[in-house]
Design a protein that fits this description.
By secondary structure, the protein is of the alpha/beta class. The protein is built from 7 helices and 7 strands, in the order E-H-E-H-H-E-H-E-E-E-H-H-E-H. The chain has helices at 18-32, 53-58, 63-74, 91-100, 134-139, 144-157, 173-189, and strands at residues 3-8, 36-41, 77-83, 107-108, 116-117, 123-129, 162-167. The termini are close together.
């Protein structure tokens, strides 16, 4: 049994978004396999943008972010799902990650050397959806936003290994059905 926190990074809370369906499918598979699940829907959280370094390092952590941090800290495995918007993760998900990954929670500065990674011992699965074919995102755009999330946020805070699923051409219904089944299977496996 694995403790899993699912982070649904779609900024639109409306039902019917494919990311929400993927998160549901993953959760269904994980629960069926006996994994413990916590879920964060970024679209339903209330928090401001971080505007200064001082605010990020010393500002008050909003209550919704504190709850999200607790869910992340309790997890052994994180699942982060988001749609590709303008070649990157949606701004709301990025703002959420900036709020969550503060010093003393995700990492700790040291007098010398690199910061201490405080989220070690956790793995992650990133699921990204897009309208373009996945191969185009990989080859032409070199999976830019995905690599940034893996290296610059998760890797910097100690989350590894990270695995990913890139889902392209989501307008095709057959593709969606296949990926919903795959997400459920990933959930059963806890990976």
């Amino acid at each position: 049994m694995t403790r899993i926190t699912i982070i649904d990074g779609h900024p639109d809370p409306a039902q019917g978004r494919f990311i929400h369906s993927l998160a549901d499918a993953y959760e269904t598979g994980a629960r069926a396999a006996g994994h413990q699940i916590r879920r964060i829907s970024v679209a339903s959280l209330e928090f401001p943008l971080v505007r200064t370094q001082s605010e990020w390092e010393h500002g008050v952590v909003p209550p919704d972010i504190e709850q999200a941090q607790a869910a992340i800290m309790a997890a052994e495995h994180l699942v982060i799902l988001y749609p590709l918007w303008l070649g990157d993760m949606p701004a709301l998900l990025k703002a959420f990650l900036e709020q969550v990954a503060r010093p003393t929670f995700a990492f700790r500065y040291r007098e010398k050397g690199f910061p201490e990674k405080l989220l070690r011992g956790r793995s992650a699965r990133i699921i990204v959806t897009m309208g373009m074919p996945a191969i185009l995102y990989r080859l032409v755009y070199r999976s830019h936003s995905l690599k940034s999330l893996e290296r610059n946020i998760l890797g910097f805070t100690g989350v590894k290994p990270t695995r990913h699923s890139i889902i392209g051409s989501i307008a095709h219904q057959r593709q969606r059905v296949r990926w919903l089944k795959r997400a459920e299977a990933l959930g059963r496996g806890g990976a």
